[in-house]
Specification:
The strands form 4 sheets. A 7-stranded mixed beta sheet has the order 7-4-3-2-1-10-13. Strands 5-6 form a two-stranded antiparallel sheet. Strands 8-9 form a two-stranded antiparallel sheet. It has a domain at 1-19 and 313-432. It is 45% helix and 14% strand. The chain has helices at residues 37-49, 77-90, 113-149, 165-176, 181-192, 210-214, 228-235, 256-270, 278-283, 330-350, 356-365, 375-382, 389-417, 427-432, and strands spanning 22-24, 53-57, 101-107, 221-226, 239-243, 250-255, 274-277, 295-296, 303-304, 308-316, 321-322, 327-328, 368-373. It has 433 residues and is an alpha/beta fold.
Length: 433
């Protein structure tokens, strides 16, 4: 409540809007309690339902085979990531056709990091197998059936490869193509019952096809979080340790370059994982006294503390360009930057959040994101090349103006209302950055 500063529960889903677009959520190594794995899926569902995106670092989760407190061993990181993947795939973002926006981050020293890196590579291979295999099986099943149907022999001789040369030939071809024997026998039995045609679905590689819906790992952007220590180990061809989550003990040692090569191959083969340069991210962190940056939102323009949210707005640059006069209205652009910095700040006080922690920290740090859209359209309208010195200079100038005006407006509001609650303990870091 912006009047009392107290945390209160919303009376309905619509009494307060969810203007924040980008979330970073923490997840603890706990199965069912608040802040744990299953609780995260519920929090993610709330965000996806109303059109927002979320990212989490899952490195606290135990690796496969690590001991559980109550006895037994953990099923590992990947088993839970697959649950979250399915949940995200079932929810249309904002109730429309867009898939949920979800980011998964795992540290490079997690014991399951190799399986994580290979996840989408193997799923892509499954899709290729489904697409190719379904078409091969269909082709040979129909050929076997045709050999039975077109036979002019007596009784059951048409269904006996020793008496039906055409059937014998098609069975050999089907086996050569690795069609399973049980499918071949099934088609012969089908023909024996009098059927003359058989239906068998095939698949394609469309991203929204049944083939991709069948496999996992298709509903998130996956990234590996790298430290400078890892990158130095790659440079020097040193060993790299994968450590247990609860004990900190080394569970496996491999060459850093081998892991780096695995990341590169996976990105080439499946477009994932991406990279989070964690040391650099934290070097530029404005609030390290409050905790490290461990993850980002799906698009990675928002990198901050776990359990926080960023409120975003974009200026449509084409609206400020007069095509007749061939001039850009800088004054109006500055006014918009100032106005929307204030609007975004106000919206923090009217928002609702998916969890207590996010509500508290979003109020305490009040992170805002102001950007622009249509830079490509503006450059084309002005006759400037996208990859030109003039184009880059224009983008740099527009970014500098927006940054300067937003910072000045933020300082002006702080002068009237005081800085955000988390400022004091991070003041020196804010000035450093």
């Amino acid at each position: 409540d912006f009047k009392t500063g107290k945390l209160v529960k919303s009376k309905s889903s619509y009494e307060h809007p969810q203007p924040h677009a980008c979330f970073i959520q923490g997840v603890q190594d706990d199965l069912v309690n608040e802040g744990g794995i299953m609780d995260l899926w519920v929090r993610e569902a709330r965000l996806f339902k109303y059109g927002s995106g979320t990212g989490s670092n899952f490195s606290m989760l135990r690796g496969e085979g690590e001991k559980l407190a109550g006895g037994g061993k953990s099923s590992g990181l990947m088993s839970f990531l697959k649950i979250g993947d399915r949940a995200a795939g079932a929810i249309k973002s904002g109730g429309t056709t867009r898939r949920a926006a979800k980011m998964v981050v795992v540290d490079a020293d997690h014991p399951d990091i190799e399986q994580y890196i290979d996840w989408k590579v193997k799923e892509e291979q499954k899709v290729a197998a489904l697409v190719t295999g379904s078409k091969i099986v269909k082709k040979h099943m129909k050929a076997v059936l045709k050999a039975c149907v077109n036979c002019e022999g007596d009784g059951d001789s048409c269904f006996d490869p020793e008496q039906n040369p055409a059937l014998k030939r098609e069975i050999k071809l089907a086996r050569k193509a690795l069609v399973p024997d049980n499918y071949i026998k099934r088609v012969i039995q089908f023909a024996k019952q009098g059927y003359k045609d058989i239906s068998f679905d095939t698949y394609d590689t469309d991203w929204d096809s049944d083939a991709y819906l069948t496999v996992s790992g298709q509903n998130s952007n996956n990234s590996v979080s790298l430290t400078d220590d890892f990158l130095r180990a790659v440079e020097t061809d040193s060993d790299w340790n994968l450590t247990g989550r609860t004990t900190g003990k080394v569970m496996k040692t491999l060459k850093a370059r081998d892991l780096w090569e695995k990341i590169g191959y996976a990105a080439w083969a499946s477009a994932d994982p991406g990279l989070h340069f964690n040391s650099t991210m934290n070097d530029w962190h404005t609030c390290p006294a409050s905790g490290r940056i461990r993850a980002s939102n799906p698009c990675s323009e928002y990198m901050f503390l776990d359990d926080t949210a960023c409120n975003l707005a974009s200026a449509n640059l084409l609206q400020f360009y007069d095509t007749q006069a061939k001039s850009f209205d800088v004054e109006a652009y500055e006014h918009l930057c100032r106005l929307w910095t204030v609007v975004l700040e106000i919206s923090v006080t009217m928002a609702q959040f998916p969890s207590r922690e996010i509500a508290e920290l979003s109020y305490e740090y009040r992170t805002l994101g102001l950007g622009y859209a249509n830079i490509g359209g503006l450059l084309m309208s002005m006759g400037l090349g996208y990859d030109s010195d003039e184009g880059r200079a224009l983008a740099g100038a527009l970014t500098a103006i927006m940054t300067g005006v937003a910072y000045a407006t933020s300082a002006e509001m702080a002068g009237e209302l005081g800085p955000f609650p988390g400022y004091k303990k991070n003041a020196s870091h804010m000035l450093r950055v």
